[in-house]
Amino acid sequence: MKKIIFATGNEGKMREIREILRDVDAQILSMKEAGITAEIEENGTTFEENAMIKAKAVAAEAKKTAAMPQSEIVVLADDSGLEVDYLNKEPGIYSARYMGEDTPYAIKNKNLIDRLEGVPDNKRTARFVCAIAAAMPDGEVITTRGVIEGRIDYEEKGKNGFGYDPIFYVPEYGCTTAELSVEEKNRVSHRARALEAMKDELKGRFLSR
Predict the structure, then answer these.
(1) Which residue is catalytic, options 25, 78, 79, 114?
(2) How is residue 102 annotated by DSSP?
C-alpha cells in the first residue's frame, strides 16, 4: 500500500488529517509512526516556503529508510497560522512559536484578546491560513493553500479545537472554530480546504498509479 507521511508530531493535527483523508487509498503515517526524526529549521518567509522546507527534509530522511520503497511514498507537510489584520497580520508564520513554543495557548489567546481591547468587530478581522507541500517520489514539490476568514472574539469559546480555535469567530457559522463539530470543522477549516486541494493533486499524480 502506498504511504503518505505527514511531517508533524502534533496529535490533534494528525486526528484532523486522518479524518479528512479517510477516503484516500493510502496508509497515513506521522513522522513518529514512520520512524523518522528530523530537526527542521523553519526559516522561510511564507507559509508555502516553510511547508516545502519541512516536506523536503522529511522526504530526505525517508529515503534513508530501506524498508520504504521511494516510489510508494509521498511526504506532506503543512505550515499554518493565524493572521490578525489589526496587528499587521501577526502572529502569521510565527503562530506556533508566538510567545514561545511551550507557552500554553490559553496565554497566547489572552494576549491577542488583550491587544485588541476596545477594537470593534469590523477591525478584528483575521484568517486562518494553511499551506500544504507534497514532496513527490520524483523529487517534485507541489503546494496548495486553504483559507478561512473570520475575526478575533472577545473570549475563548468552545472545546472542540486546539490552538487559536477558541478565539477565532466565524460569522458565517455564528461561533468559533472550537465550537464547530468535528465534522463541520473538517469540512470548512483552512487545513481541510488545503488538504482537499492536495487530495485532488495526489489523485492525478500519485494515488492513481
Answers:
(1) 79
(2) T
